[in-house]
Amino acid sequence: MNKLQITNLQNKTKLIFVLLLSSIFATPKGQALLTSYSLLAKQIYAQEAINLSVTPPLFELTIAPDKEVRQIFSLINSGSDVYITPKIVYFVPSDEFGNVEITDTKSPDWIKYDNSKVFLKQDAKLDLNVVFFPPPDLPETDHFLTIVFEAENDNLDTNDNLDELDENKNSSEYTTQIASNILVTVSKDGNPKKAAEIIKFSTVKIADSLLTPVSYELVIKNVGNSFWKPNGKIVTNNQTLKLAPQNILSNYSRKISCIEAETLVPCKLDGKPFIGLVKANLEFTTDEDPKLYRAEVKTFVFPFSVLVIFSASLLTLLRYKFIFKLWRRRD
Questions:
Q1: Distance CA 73, CA 55 (A)
Q2: 270 and 154: one domain?
Q3: Residue 159: which residues within 8 A CB-CB, separation 6 or more?
Q4: Are residues 94 and 112 part of one domain?
Q5: Which pLDDT score, from 0 to 100, does residue 296 have?
Q6: Distance (Å, rounded) from C-alpha 63 to C-alpha 186?
Q7: 5, 203, 255, 269: least CB-packed within 10 angstroms?
Q8: pLDDT tens string 61-95
Q9: Within this chain, do residues 42 and 59 fall inside the same structural domain, yes or no?
Q10: What is the distance between the alpha carbons of residues 166 and 36, in angstroms, rounded to a whole number?
């Protein structure tokens, strides 16, 4: 087939495709499909047009009852014009990996802020002043909160053909949220109780030092009444793994990673060849509290893969040697 024939075939294919689209969109279902595609494109555009950032991304506060603290949360709009509605609600941990679930429970009345909807232009900044003023009789405990900024893009006609497709759809489909967590500890003397329990510190009993690097699983529970971060390490025969300073909320457990050059990494050895017993000693404190928590696990490591390869090679050699002897005897 020459170039001219290929070009004509491509043109015919394009013409058939255009005619096919025309016949589809000429029908009522086709028109609905086209309208649905247009609305989907608008939704994608709205999501791309909203570009927000909030500082600080995490706010930690220890406050005494009957004391006041003010904090400003800044929201910068790098996208198109939006309407912003702030709210502060509680969150709860959803698993042992640090993920959280935002609830509908509103913040206590001793946290004051302006929750009015405001218009925020492109490249503008919104400073939201939040006042924390716990009453004198408030119990010493933690409050896990999230400040949520809900943004609604105002550049879209959200009512366009909406009823034709789904009467349950509304303008909430064109909103997005950005949040910042707030961890508040209420303490009379500024020294809340911090205590830990090692739920799990484990590893394999036997490992191949060449194929499978020895790794450690660590789960710690906060049994105090204030959040804290573990400050510690895992020390082995010839390596030291630093624990990541990850927040553990009171009455919750968390799986702790290790940290390397400010990056979260699994707690595992580097996999260098080694033969013998590896003792891993865990030791950490809760923040700067002097109490030291300890645990120990042991693993026997050996390059079993080398032994298997050597054994297989030796058996193969002996087999061929035996076959060679039989062949010589026949001769």
A1: 6
A2: no
A3: none
A4: yes
A5: 97
A6: 5
A7: 5
A8: 999 999 999 999 999 999 889 999 999 999 999 99
A9: no
A10: 10
79: tokens are 């996208």
**Structural domain range at position 31:** 3-47
Per the structure block, which two tokens stand in for 116?
Answer: 């009015």
Judged by DSSP in three states, 169 sits in coil
Q: What is the dihedral of CA 270, 280, 214, 197, to 10 degrees?
A: -120
Share of the chain above pLDDT 90, in %: 55
E strand segments, 95-173: 100-106, 111-112, 118-120, 125-132, 142-153
Distance CA 227, CA 184 (A): 9
| Structure token pair of residue 9 | 């075939």
Q: Who wins on pLDDT, 239 or 303?
A: 239
pLDDT at 10 (0 to 100): 43
Provide the domain count of the chain.
Answer: 3
The model's pTM? 0.70
Across the range 145-173, mean pLDDT stands at 60
